[in-house]
Structure formats: C-alpha cells, structure tokens
Amino acid sequence: MAKKSIDAVDVSGKRVLIRVDFNVPLEGGKITDDRRIEAALPTIRSVIDRGGKAILMSHLGRPKGEGYEAKYSLKVAAERLSELLNKPVAFPSQDCTDQAAADAVNAMNNGDVLLLENLRFHKGETEGSSELAGKIAQLGDVYVNDAFGTCHRPHASMVGVPRAMAGKPRVTGFLVEKEIRYLAEALGNPAKPFVIVLGGAKVSDKMAAIEHLLPKADDIIVGGAMAYTFLKAQNKDVGDSRVEEDRLDDAKRAIDLAAKLDAELYLPKDHVCGKSFDEDGGGDIEVFGEHIKPGFMGLDIGPETQGEFARVIRNAKTVVWNGPMGVFEWRPFRIGTEQVAKALVEATEKGATTIVGGGDSAAAIEKFGLADKVSHVSTGGGASLEMLEGKNFEAVDVLDDA
To answer: Over 80: is that where the pLDDT of 381 sits?
Structure first.
C-alpha cells in the first residue's frame, strides 16, 4: 500500500494542487481549533520551500451545494494559514472554478500559496462529478492528497481530480503518508500482544471493525455505551443503560467469535451510573458491580474495570483505541477514558506502537494533554474507523505507488 510521497517529486516551478482538510470548527465566524490547518503545514512548506506553487483546496461544513454561502467561506482559514506561514495566502474568489480563480493561479510566482473557495459550494464535489473534477484538474501539474479525514469519501476532489490528472504525479502529503503508515501497516503486521480498545455509543458503528480485527487481535476491550448491548446479550442487568436491541445478535456473534478464535474479550465488570443523562447523573451517582439497578444508566466504566483495562493495555506491544469509555466531557464520568489514555502513554514509554483513531478518542486524549505522548493520533474519525474495518480507499488507490 506504500504510496509515492510529495518529497519524491520535483516541484520547482510547478503548480501543486493540494487537497487539504481545513474543515475546522467555527464559532461566531472565528476558528475555535486550528489543528487541521497546522497539520497541513509540513506538506505546504515542503512545496513552497522547494519553489513550487501551492494551490490548496478543501471543504468546510455542509453547505447546500448551490453556490456561495458566507458562513461556510474558507476566507477565515486563508487568514489563519497566512499567520501560521508568516506570508500572504491568496484567496481569489467565491468560486473555486471561475475565471478569477484560474487567473489568480496563472499569476502565481514560485513559493506562493493560494487557497480556493469551499469545494462544497458545488453539488458536484460530494456527487463525485467528473465535470467539476476536470475543471479543478486544469489548475495543477502535480496532485497531492493530504486530507486523510476525507479519504473514505469518493468525492470529486479526492478521486475525480487525481483521475483527471492521469500521467501527472499524484502523491500523498506527509499527513496522509503518516496515517497510512500507522493505520494500514501497523494493522497489517502488528507486534504482539495486539490490543484493540473500542468504545463510544453504538455497536452498529464498530461491528465491522470488531469482526475484521478479532482474528488479528490478542485482546479486545469494549467500553462506552456500546458495552451495554454486549452485556445484555450475556443476560446481565443493565438498568436503563443505552442498548441497541436490534444489535443483540451481532453482539452475541462477536462474543462467540472471540471464544472460538481464542481472543480475550474484555467487558466492564463494574459501572459508574447516574439516574439521568446529564452532568450530575440526575443528582444521584452510584457505582454498581456486575448488575445495574433499574432506574440507573451506565455512564462510565467502574474502578475495577479501569484497573483491568489499564493492565491489559500496559502489557501490549500494539494498541489501537477508537471510542471513549464513558461521557468524558463530564467530570464525574471521565475517569475511565482518562485511565485508558494514561495506560496508552505507559505502553508507549515501554516501546509499544499506540494509535488513537480520531474522533472522540482524539478529542479526549487532547483534553487530557497526552496527545504528544502516544505514537499517533489520527486526524480522521470516520476514515480511521473504515481503515480498521479493512476497507480500501479509492482516494488512496488512485495515487502513484512508491
């Protein structure tokens, strides 16, 4: 799966079309978290430092796809990028395919940076339109995919543009290169013991990953709300905890498969519960053992479970974590997730490869200030989960092999 990277291409004097992921959170028209812009800097700098012209394209939010909408404009991202690079970033027009955008690209000097307006102002972006892809492809001599968070989507900028640029270099940026290295290669041949930690709300979101990973894993840890579907499938009393009734058979199948494959499946043995789903648990927080009383719902793993999960993780040589153990945003229910994060750090210090699979897990490990103490934190929640399911991405397949 190794793909050619941007550092293997002579970009001097070339128009380098880079698909970045600047889908940043906004509040009142201001960026509240610029990590995605910062993550693209090494690729952008590699191009402009070697005399290339960096033409960036991204989506932002979910506009209707019927033209310009001010609240989804990437102008704010262009301004932040300019501050981070300490140089001007051109932002030519309200349409990534109009004449003003093309003229601005043609006027670029070596080392310049330009950001096109939101791709999703065109319906054709999410529809994978070859017509839109063809127009954008005319702007570049080299194509770079550095938007891992969108790699699982067959959109025009991800698949159509590199297809339309057949015969020209089509490569990964450093961010996508790193994601593929960790997620695909670590999973392809993991050092043992290989431990998978899955959490979050829904069994339905993680079932494909569980079935794909069980044959490779030594241990699978299941926490979060999804654990209550598994526990109910084992006839445990789960009180008012969230259960996907239509997924009980899936949970039973996974439990049976783990037993057959000799993989150890760890489920919570005790629970921090509240009477309602809010920050103080409805004013009544209790710890229950194996069985939860009616009227209470599980909102975090309990102390015994925290210790057991941490012990398994600390002894691993490869760990992949996707999904929190409880409602970590609320102080009374954050400890289980925090203990998992700390155990991941300890495993890393002992030489393990530790991968945090985007989304809520990435938000949690950032919140605890531990993101730089594990091997890799993925930038793509949905994309990393699909990679854990063993899916191939057309957006990566279309790039040149190393």
So the answer is: no
User: Could you confirm whether 13 is annotated as catalytic?
Assistant: no
What 3 state SS string does 315-355 have?
Answer: CCCEEEEECCCCCCCCHHHCHHHHHHHHHHHHHHHCCCEEE
What SS3 class is residue 184? helix
Alpha-carbon distance values, 36 to 23, 269, 271, 275, 329 (Å) = 7, 38, 35, 38, 21
Catalytic member of 239, 302, 323, 359:
359
Q: Which of 36, 50, 178, 342 is catalytic?
A: 36
pTM (2 d.p.): 0.86
The order of strands in the sheet holding 271-274 is 285-288, 271-274, 297-301
314 is catalytic: no
Catalytic residue among 111, 134, 282, 382: 382
- With respect to CATH, is domain 6-174 assigned 3.40.50.300? no
232 is an active site residue? no
Would residue 202 show up in a list of annotated catalytic residues for this protein?
yes
| Domain(s) of CATH 3.40.50.1260: residues in the chain | 6-174, 183-388
CATH class for the region spanning 183-388? alpha beta
> pLDDT of 149-172, one tens digit each?
899 999 999 999 999 999 999 999
| Predicted confidence (pLDDT) at residue 75 exceeds the cutoff of 90 | yes
Spatial CB neighbours of 181, under 8 Å, sequence gap ≥ 6: none
